[in-house]
Every structure is written in structure tokens, then in C-alpha cells.
Amino acid sequence: MSADSVKRNDGLQKGESNMKENEIKCVLCGLSVEINGFTVNTTEGLKLFCCAGCVSVYRLLNGDKLLD
Ligand SMILES: [Zn+2]
After folding, report:
1. Which residues are within 5 Å of ligand 1 (an ion), measured at CB?
2. 10 CA distance to ligand 1 centroid (A)?
3. The CA-based dihedral angle spanning residues 28, 30, 34, 36, taken in that order and rounded to the nearest 10 degrees
4. For the whole prediction, is pTM greater than 0.85?
């Protein structure tokens, strides 16, 4: 069983490294953005985030830059 999970992990890692060149990173935590829609309009442009939690933390920290 453990050998099976090792093989699966290897496959996942290869898949991820192939996709990373086009990957969008969360502005706050740096994780890949897999769901569109967590965005914030700021004076520095549109920021993209991985989740609603990162959006709310960014809004708290950058309240003076928010446009919406
Ligand atoms: Zn994030």
C-alpha cells in the first residue's frame, strides 16, 4: 500500500511542476489560485487570491488601497 501512495505522489509532483509556469499565485500567501473570483480591486491593480480568507486579510491590511 505504501508503495502505491509513493507512486501517486511522484505523479502529482510532475503534474504540478508542468503547470507552474502558467500558475497564478495568491498575492497574500503564495499558493496557486485554482478558483477564479477571489479578487480585490486596488490602486495598484487587480489582486488575485486563493480563497476568501486571504481576501479578507488583505482587505484588513490594505484598507487604504481598496477601490471597491
Ligand atoms: Zn492565499
Report:
1. 26, 28-29, 31, 50, 54
2. 25
3. 30
4. no
